[in-house]
Amino acid sequence: VQLVESGGDLAQPGGSLRLSCAASGFNFTRYAMGWFRQAPGKEREFVAGIYWSGGSTSYADSVKGRFTISRDNAKNTLWLQMNSLKPEDTALYYCVKADSRWWSVSAAGYDYWGQGTQVTVSS
Predict the structure, then answer these.
(1) 19 sits in which H/E element
(2) Nearest 10 degrees: Cα torsion 79, 55, 25, 107
(3) pLDDT (0 to 100) of residue 90
(4) What is the largest CA-CA distance in the chain?
(5) Of 6, 54, 74, 119, whose CB count within 10 A is highest?
């Protein structure tokens, strides 16, 4: 299993970024996927999750209304569109594969993690 994130960058407050995750080595269409993040000195936290078909999504309260998770099962790709970025969104963002068709807000529900892509929001 490989999960390769890209798209992290330095952004200004109020700006936007789009993270991508290229997945390989497993049947992408059978599993939920998600995004977690970890800021320096803080615990890793759930950001967003998406059902195997894309028909159900979930977001942390801190990003609801600003971030959108989506997937293309034909391309084995997961995205996270991040709008209205805030300095508190600064973190290393991880693409994660669930161990079932359902997303989970707990890290225990995911069995593979990417290496992460850095998002920094600062003026």
Answers:
(1) strand 17-24
(2) 80
(3) 98
(4) 41
(5) 119
